[in-house]
Amino acid sequence: MRLISWNVNGLRAVHRKGNWKDVWKLEPDVLCLQEIKADVEDLPDETREIEGYKSFFNTGTSKKGYSGVALYTNIETEAVEYDMGEDRFDMEGRLITVHFKDFVLCNVYFPNGGQGPERLQYKLDFYDAFLEYIGRLKNETGKKIIFCGDINTAHEEIDLARPKENEKNTGFLAEERAWIDEVVALGYVDAYRMLHPHKTDAYSYWDLKTRARDRNVGWRIDYFFVEQSLMKNVKDATIHSDVFGSDHCPIEIDVEI
Question: Is 150 assigned a catalytic role?
């Protein structure tokens, strides 16, 4: 089972540039998108319905063309959720949770902590609310949980090109990184780092304004977190840095369930 996650930074833009077909060449069983930046009715037909797949969208209600997530699957679903249960988070359209027979998958676009202290606090509050949410999911369903998406934080120094220069910048603040420590302490595994513990220069995001991708001055802020007991089923984890169209690239895990 091939699970792929990609922050597209505008689904219409990716389609217009011709890169939409590139991610489908990877043959995902489940494709999770973040930051689609469009209401469903405004999306091209080719991005709304994919032959052989069910598609789900959460574009939120906060403002048009902002945030938003999508999920496509060729695996039978049992239920789909779009909310964590707190309006100030749910209105931004940042979550799709799909219940499969053997596990639950959360596709999440976590907030960026930029634009001042209020937005950083919003991000940290969202982090905490999400952990409460997946805790409830685990208790209610008894199923293993995988969550993926743009976490908007690099965990360790190995996960960004210039850690010392960014210690006081959102995305690498101590309090943001501490949340990922908490995720790990709760038994969730960063699948890519588990399988590639010493891999350097492995990034999923590059700043477009400085043409950072050309120099690979990047950040690994897109993740698959998998419950520890399920990691034995994860056979590979990949960063598809050769897929363009966004300031992020797709990431993948291959799972045998």
Answer: yes
